[in-house]
Amino acid sequence: MTPKLAVLNMTGTTVNDHGLVQQAVINTMKAITQTKITIDDANKVMGIPKNIAFEQLCSVNKLSIDNEMINQLLGHFNSELENQYSIKGNIELMPFADELFDAMRKRGTKIYLNSGLNINLAEIIVKQLDLKSKIDGYIGSDEVKKGRPHPDMIQLAMKKEGVEYSHKVMKVGDTVSDLYEGFSAGCAWNIGVLTGAHTYNELFTAPYTQILNDLERVIAKFEKK
């Protein structure tokens, strides 16, 4: 069976931003809370809505937090990424992403990108990489009530494309929260790829149908369906 809809994560999965999200998280925590965190700390909160990510980081570092603090953190983070993503050459498609899009289009599968980032940053990515002609839509985490690991973004993509049953949906992502999102939505294909923030051992702890090295392997799996 061929998927009617594929929901693919952006940064770390189909888009290579060379660690700009993680660096923005690190810079934001230092600028707003004067707290130094590591790249490993930042990786642990990849894939989830960034307000939740900062709440978790503040909790782990025993920092008191309120709505004002969250808004300051988000404002700094979003501003830094907007500036970085707007610079030509700072982001690029992951290897084999174009070929995967082509393989899916040839099979008639609708392609949506989704992200733990907000819709404004998602739009910047789509415009910078000229993706509008290659995909059918994209969704930011602030467009739904609950972001990952909840299934809301996948369900919104299904609604937009008139896909009624989740067993006709493929999810691909590079984080544990991506895999829980796909599992929560009931996706028949729930694929983790080792191109982003989380390792095989980390992805192995989540529900999945396959864990693959890269998008080239996803193409091979997809074309067998």
How would you describe the overall organization of this protein?
The chain is of the alpha/beta class and about 220 residues long. It folds into two domains: about 5-15 and about 90-225, Rossmann fold (3-Layer(aba) Sandwich); about 20-85. The protein is about 45% helix and about 15% strand. The chain has ten helices and eight strands. It has a six-stranded parallel β-sheet, sandwiched between helices. A two-stranded antiparallel ribbon has the order 2-3. Helix 8 (about 175-185) links the parallel strand 6 (about 170-175) and strand 7 (about 190-195). The longest helix has 19 residues, at about 65-85. The termini are close together. The model has no long low-confidence stretch (mean pLDDT about 95).
